[in-house]
Amino acid sequence: MAEGGGAKAVVAALLANLGIAATKFVAYALTGSSAMLAEGVHSVADSGNQVLLLVGGRRAERDATPQHPFGFGRARYVYAFVVAIVLFSVGGLFALYEAWHKFSEPEPIESWRWVPVAVLLVALALEGASLRTAVREAGRVRGRRSWPQFVRTSKAPELPVVLLEDFGALIGLGFALVGVGLTLVTGDGRWDAAGTAMIGLLLVSIAAVLAVEMSSLLLGESASPEHVRAVERALPGSGVLSVIHLRTLHLGPEELLVAAKVAVAGNATGADVARAIDAAEERVRAAVPIARVIYLEPDLRGAERRDPGPPSLSPAVAPQDGGGVDDSREPEDISRERCWELLGLAPYGRLAVVVDSAPEVFPVNHLVADVGGRAAVLFRTAAGTKLFAGVGRDVAFEADGVDAGTDEAWSVVVTGVAELVEDPATVAEVTGRLVAWHGTDKPHVVAVGGASVSGRRFRLERAR
What is the DSSP letter of 393? Predict the structure, then answer.
């Protein structure tokens, strides 16, 4: 029960409710007020609920077993769902029954007339202190979410449960205070019954909200949007070209399962793929520490199945003595759309730029994305480098590859002006997906928009 000091808030609520319950039952014994009885039962139900939350937190800490290989993290959701049932039955339904009984046989408060008011005021102070503790602890993890959003999206059940119970308790005490006060003023016991009925309806409503939220967690919720984006940024890197699809599931509030199919190069060896998967898992755990269970399946995108490219020619098709480009077949032009597909599949390419009146060629890893409504090649660089000096100038980017299955090679060239990307979201995405070579810091992202994009395909002649 680590998230947001949940245990501290639960213990504070438990101590407050035990003291409040005792004073309410004393007031009921002295006055016979149905509102005091309903509030006393409400406090007992809340105390029992806090005990259930604490027990659930302890049971969730058990180690995984062969029968439960993913552990017991969801025990916290089970016990929180039981809390909703207790609040509905013991708290809400009992209060509604007591209200019906008092409506049928209304009785004024004739002895110890002002004791209920004093007890309710003390209870308001104690419940307010408990709610303040819960609000303070929840504020540490709420972020920018509104309070309703926090209750709906929190993966840890304890704080939403305590917040709703304490908030409901304060409203219920207000109903009881109004009902008891009007009964004292008018001598009509039906006001006491009306206050009791309002308490019952309030508790039933809160129980319904808790049941809906806890049932969603029990069925299995995905990671938060922030965590999903962090995983998507962390997966691509050395050996992992892109994410084909991603699924996440909370095994518990602080335990996340990540399952993804990732694209790898078609000519990567088994050892290369294994190293790439291990590195991707490390990046995910560093980005999202609660990602405890990670399953990654390597695969090829549709186009890569036909064009594995690039980095080197295999011995079976490499030009040797008597081998080379088959002159009997003319090179074929590649469509613009296919050119961008092939660029997206190539793990790296070469950027040509003129620096100090001399041509320079730089190998870069890159990705293809839409920038300003047009496709572009994006790569990382740092200020002060020769590569950065190409910003604002005409450059050329080339990538190539070989299809070992058909003995065909391809080459795609993009020419255009290198532009510095200013959009923070695009910069964050690119820097998250592209690993800087040599471990150097390359905070800037450059886009080559492709004023001209062309590609050609060649048949390679096998060596004889």
Answer: S
**DSSP designation for 1:** -
Q: What is the DSSP string of 274-341?
A: HHHHHHHHHHHHHH-TTEEEEEEEEE--HHHHH----S---TTTS--TT-EE-TTS--EE--HHHHHH
Do β-strands 291-299 and 255-263 pair in parallel, antiparallel, or remain unpaired?
A: parallel
**CA 278 to chain centroid:** 22
Which among 141, 152, 163, 114 is positioned nearest to 13, based on CA atoms?
Answer: 163
Question: What do you get for the CA distance between the two ends of the chain, in Å?
Answer: 70
Please tell me the distance from the alpha carbon of residue 247 to that of residue 261, in angstroms, as a whole number: 9
What are the two backbone dihedrals, phi and then psi, of residue 362, each rounded to the nearest 5 degrees? Answer: -125, 130
Residues 6+ positions from 15 with CB-CB distance below 8 Å: none
- Cβ atoms of 94 and 33 within 8 Å: the answer is no
Q: For residue 458, what are its two tokens?
A: 């060649």
Q: What does the pLDDT profile of the chain (464 residues) look like in tens digits?
A: 544 446 777 887 788 778 778 877 887 787 777 767 777 777 787 788 778 888 888 888 888 788 888 878 888 888 888 888 877 777 778 778 878 877 887 776 666 667 778 878 888 888 888 888 888 888 888 877 888 888 888 888 888 888 888 888 888 888 888 888 888 888 887 888 888 889 889 888 888 888 888 888 888 888 888 898 899 889 988 888 888 889 999 988 888 999 999 988 877 888 889 999 999 999 999 999 999 899 999 988 654 554 444 443 333 333 444 445 445 557 788 888 888 888 887 878 998 888 777 888 888 888 888 777 778 888 888 876 766 767 888 889 999 887 655 567 889 999 888 888 888 888 887 877 777 666 667 888 888 876 688 888 887 665 54
pTM more than 0.70: no
